[in-house]
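Bug: C-alpha cell stream looks shifted between consecutive jobs. Job 1:
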Amino acid sequence: MSTPTPTEINFHKKSHELEVAFDEGSRFHFSSEFLRVHSPSAEVRGHAPGEETLQIGKENVNIESMEPVGNYAIKITFTDGHDSGIFSWDLFYDYGKNHEAMWKDYLQKLKDAGHEHKLN
C-alpha cells in the first residue's frame, strides 16, 4: 500500500504550525518545534541508531522557508539556521499518525536530561 499524497500544505504564521492534508482524508498539524526536533537530518538523527542528538531549547524556533524537493518532499529552513532535513510525504504521514507518542517521548527525554520544556 502506498502512502497517501498531500493535497494541501499550509504554514500558519500566527500559530507557527504546518498543516498537511492527505488525499485519503487525514489532516495533521505540526508545530515548528516538533518538526525541528524531529528533523530527518543526520545532525538530529545521527548516522546510525543510538547516535541521535537531543534537541534542546527549540521552543521558539519557527519555520523560515520551505521549498519543494521533487514531487516527494519539502526542505524546511528553520529560524535557528537548521536546513538539512528533507521531509518526505511518507515522513509527514508517519509523524502525523505517531505525533502524540513522539511528542511525549521527546518531552520525557528532555526531562530525563534535566531540561525543562519552557512552554509546558
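Job 2, same session, no restart:
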Amino acid sequence: MKTYFTSLVNYDRYANELILNAIINTNEPEKPVQLMAHMLAAQQIWYNRCNELPAIGGALWPDWKADSFGQLIIDNHAKWLAFLNKTDNADFGKQIKYQNSKGEPFSNKLTDILAHLINHGTHHRAQAGQLLKLAGVSLPITDYIFYLRQLKS
C-alpha cells in the first residue's frame, strides 16, 4: 500500500507541475488558477485531517496567485511523502475522524481519503486543462501511465 500511494503522490506532483507550467505560459488565466489554488488548499486540509491537526483557516477556494503554486506543490508533496513514510500497513485501514468545512463530523478509511486526494487533483487538473485547451494551449500529457513510462525511460 505504501509503495502504491507513494507512486500516486509522486505522480500528483509531476502532473501539478506540468499544468502549472501550462498556466504560467498562458498568462495565468483566472479560472485555471482558481482550480489549482483550490486543489492545493484541499491537499493541505486533508493532510491536517489525516494528522489530527487543527483545521486550516481560510477559504476552500483561496485567492492565491500562480507564482506561489510551485512552492506549494513542493511543500504539499514533501508533507504527504513524510506522512506516507511514517505510515505502516495497518494504518491504511485506520478510520480518520474529521469535520468538513461546515463542521459536520465524518469518518473515512485512510485508503479512501488518499484515493480521494489523488482523484480530486486529477479532476481539477482536467478542468484546468480543458479551459487551457479551449484557449488554444497545447497541453502536456498528464496521464498516470505516461508518467510511469517516463520513470522507466
